Amino acid sequence: MLYDQVSEAAATIRASSSLRPTLALILGSGLGDLAHELEQAVPIAYADIPHFARSTVGGHAGRLLLGWLENMPVVVMQGRFHLYEGYAPHVVTLPVRVMRMLGAEVLLVTNAAGGVNPAYRPGDFMLIRDHIYMPGLAGLSPLVGQDDVRLGERFPSLTLAYDQQMQAVARMVADRQNVTLHEGVYTMVGGSNFEASAELKYLRIIGTDAVGMSTAPEVIVARQIGMRVLGISLIANTATGNETGEVNHSGVMETARAVRATFSALIRGIVRELAKRSAEP
Ligand code: HPA
Predict the structure, then answer these.
(1) Which atom of ligand 1 approaches the CA of 115 most closely?
(2) Best substitution site from 237, 246, 253, 255 to test ligand 1's pocket, by max atoms within 8 Å of Cβ?
(3) What is the torsion angle, in degrees rounded to the nearest 10, for the CA atoms of residue 113, residue 119, residue 124 and residue 128?
(4) What is the pLDDT of residues 34-84, one digit of tens each?
């Protein structure tokens, strides 16, 4: 049973650290360096956690860390799992359930994405206002086959999946730091190929601002188990369907490297603000 797997994974992690995290942070492609900024960090390789898959992608370290960030007890995924690695959606999202069981009530999820909106430039950031989960619409929801009340409601709503108050916090912090933070719709595709030009034009027509290969299933599970969600995409490349050059994974990683400090300051600023607010009566 999935619930038992989640419990066993959580028990293993608790044996390594007694920290009870209130916030879960998923670091996307090339964005894992922020994990080095945790204080009193206890790293645990995914390979040492029962029922966790393995990270097979360059730019995803493949470990979980518990520690402190801006006075907030956090659990961090340095690298995530993707459908394109061959993992089923409920496997990709198991860590979200585990992090919730450890105590996290808030999920801050990040990714590197292609900018479908022609106004977006590589190196910009985008606040995820909503998503379109293409594989999910076609039957690959992480909730498929998981009918167990202990895992949450069978038919969770996804309207307002992305928390409005936390979006306001992110907006304020970005503004204060002079960081370009667009706001838009993230569409998840299956990957691992990048999209054909005609597909990108299609994605734009249906309302996509940024396209990527992750995040949506994690958000669905987080909502099912009542977490508040904030999503931030790094625009790593242009993906409008009109470009003449090729997009590739190393280009995505390069952009991520170039904005490392900006990304780190933005996320830390948001966490600091959330910590401040949660400390208020
Ligand atoms: N398409 C899909 N996923 C991505 C892209 C892209 O252009 N860039 C980074 N992840």
Answers:
(1) 7
(2) 237
(3) -60
(4) 999 999 999 999 999 999 998 887 766 799 999 999 999 999 999 999 999
Q: Which atom of ligand 1 is nearest to the CA of 239?
A: 7
Ligand 1 atom with minimal separation from the 213 CA:
3
Going from the Cα of 5 to the center of ligand 1, the distance in angstroms, rounded, reads 31
Distance 34 CA to ligand 1 centre (A): 21
- The amino acid present at 17, given as its one-letter code, is S
CA angle, residues 246, 251, 254, in degrees to nearest 5? 165
Q: What percent of the chain has pLDDT over 70?
A: 99
Residue 223 is inside which H or E element, if any? Answer: helix 216-224
Q: Is the model's pLDDT at 124 over the cut of 90? A: yes
Q: What is the extent of the structural domain holding 188?
A: 2-279
Q: What is the pLDDT of residues 163-188, one digit of tens each?
A: 999 999 999 999 999 999 999 999 99
State the pTM of this model: 0.96
**Ligand 1 centre distance from Cα of residue 237 (Å):** 7
Contacts of 14 (CB under 8 A, 6+ apart): 102
Surface-to-core class of residue 249, CB atoms within 10 Å of its CB (0-12 exposed, 13-18 middle, 19+ buried):
middle
- Range of lowest pLDDT (1-5, 25-29, 253-257): 253-257
Mean pLDDT, range 234-256, rounded to an integer? 87
281 — pLDDT class (breaks 50, 70, 90): low
CATH of the domain at 146: 3.40.50.1580
Q: 31 to each of 59, 113, 219, how far by Cα in Å?
A: 8, 12, 18
Residue nearest to atom 3 of ligand 1 (CA): 212
Q: Which of 247, 248, 250 to mutate to test the pocket of ligand 1 (most atoms within 8 A of CB)?
A: 247
